[in-house]
Amino acid sequence: MSRTSSLKRWPGWVLLLFVVVGFLVYGSTRDAGARTPEERVEEIAKRLACPVCDGESVYESANPASAAIRQEIKAQVSSGVATDDDIVAYIVQQFGAQTQLVPKASGFESLVWVLPAVAFVCAGVGLFFAFRRWRTTIDTVPDDADRALVDAALAEQDEPDEP
Quick count: other Cβ atoms within 10 Å of Cβ 68? Predict the structure, then answer.
């Protein structure tokens, strides 16, 4: 590949990168608008794990402990004083950290969200450089020694087998 053709291709990749980053920023920061109290209760209940059941959220579970947590969430939402994060923090404080399904997006627990993305990007960059190095180390233009080997192999193949 010539230098001019590689220079023509990189703006497209940069544009694609900006578009993807733009969509990610828009998707992570957009507001869903006003929510009803029932929607808030459902969202909070989906963020919490049932303290008795294994692998179920408070929203899905029919256990009496989950029903009591849903009632507590509903009471706090209807009071209108606490935010969603405050309600989750209160439930986690009452029942322990095992009730938190979704890790916090701050502090040490944010690594749960960041590390897989960083690993994916590092793997992609590593593959890019590995493929680039492999492509440049492969000699794609045959020389006279290569042609002589091919001619010898073809000549050997064309010779009749002797009994």
Answer: 13
Separation in Å, CA 25 to CA 22, 118, 145: 5, 17, 56
Question: Which one is predicted more confidently, 151 or 160?
Answer: 151
Query: CA dist 89 to 56, 103, 118, Å?
Result: 19, 11, 28
Q: Is 58 helix (H, G, I), strand (E, B) or coil?
A: coil
Q: Are the C-beta atoms of 60 and 20 separated by less than 8 Å?
A: no
Domain co-membership, 97 together with 128: no
- Its pTM stands at 0.50
pLDDT at 8 (0 to 100): 65
The 10s digit of each residue's pLDDT in 135-148 is: 766 666 788 888 89
How many domains in the chain?
Answer: 2
CA dist 139 → 4, 128, 143 (Å): 20, 19, 9
SS3 assignment, position 62 = coil
Of the two residues 161 and 72, the one the predictor is more confident about is: 72
Token digits for 99? 């009730």
* Residue 100, strand partner residues: 48
Do 118 and 98 sit in the same domain of this protein? no
